[in-house]
């Protein structure tokens, strides 16, 4: 759905939670969801970045968002339970969840991986996303049609040397999405993945410091796929891993 054109107010009356909303793809997705009418919950670890996104949304005249400062590396089950309870109390339902937050760690041979780095990557990229999704299921069942989107990667489909724990975490993401999608079946919840591909973000720059960033797609150029999976036009799409750009 790389050429999808969202109708005006495609996300009106929807509440959507975006993790990693302070920067990169998460920031742009949150702003675009708000642009098309959604009330966006901005979750991230750096309050100042979330406040900047908040201000940008409000200054544009879009629905007023909410801010949830939370570092997924230190988040507990109670944090996620409290988040779900707050969403239900303030909004009544949750229509969308974009599990976007991820960390790269360091690239290098698997033979030399750092155990603590490996554990941190798995905590943020896999465990925290599983727990936040599990915790939000009850409030998402209150929505007429709810969409959960996980952020995948090309290295989560075919192994590539030196990508180590990050690649492994994205293979796990693909598997988690497929398993959960099978379980939700024909309920009101659908679950899919997006592979954003090579994108002009700070994470990409840290992985490829010598790369010409001007040759990369910007997060804004990927938004058709992100908007499609959050809109009602994707009702019935479940268990799919979509590419946000053509290679």
TrEMBL record:
Q: Which Pfam families match?
A: adh_short (PF00106)
Has the keyword Oxidoreductase been applied to this entry?
Answer: yes
Q: Name one GO molecular function term.
A: oxidoreductase activity
Keywords from the named record = Oxidoreductase
InterPro entries (alphabetical):
NAD(P)-bd_dom_sf (IPR036291), Sc_DH/Rdtase_CS (IPR020904), SDR_fam (IPR002347)
Query: Keyword Oxidoreductase: yes or no?
Result: yes
Similarity comment text for this entry:
Belongs to the short-chain dehydrogenases/reductases (SDR) family.
Protein name, please? YciK family oxidoreductase
């Amino acid at each position: 759905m790389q050429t999808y054109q969202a109708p005006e107010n495609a996300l009106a009356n929807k509440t959507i939670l975006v993790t990693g909303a302070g920067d990169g793809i998460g920031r742009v997705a949150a702003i675009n969801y708000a642009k098309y009418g959604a009330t966006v919950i901005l979750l991230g670890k750096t309050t100042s970045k979330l406040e900047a996104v908040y201000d940008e949304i409000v200054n544009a005249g879009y629905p007023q968002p909410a801010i949830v400062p939370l570092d997924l590396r230190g988040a507990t089950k109670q944090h996620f339970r409290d988040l779900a309870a707050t969403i239900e109390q303030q909004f009544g339902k949750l229509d969308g969840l974009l599990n976007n937050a991820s960390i790269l760690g360091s690239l290098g041979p698997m033979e030399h991986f750092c155990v603590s780095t490996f554990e941190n990557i798995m905590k943020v990229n896999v465990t925290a996303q599983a727990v936040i999704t599990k915790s939000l299921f009850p409030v998402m069942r209150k929505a007429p049609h709810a969409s959960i989107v996980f952020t995948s990667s090309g290295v989560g489909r075919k192994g590539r040397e030196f990508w180590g724990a990050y690649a492994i975490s994205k293979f796990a993401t693909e598997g988690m999405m497929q398993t959960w999608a099978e379980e939700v079946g024909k309920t009101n919840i659908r679950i899919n993945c997006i592979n954003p591909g090579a994108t002009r973000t700070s994470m990409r720059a840290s992985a490829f410091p010598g790369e010409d960033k001007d040759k990369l797609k910007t997060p804004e150029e990927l938004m058709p796929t992100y908007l499609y999976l959050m809109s009602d036009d994707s009702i019935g799409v479940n268990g799919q891993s979509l590419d946000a750009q053509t290679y």
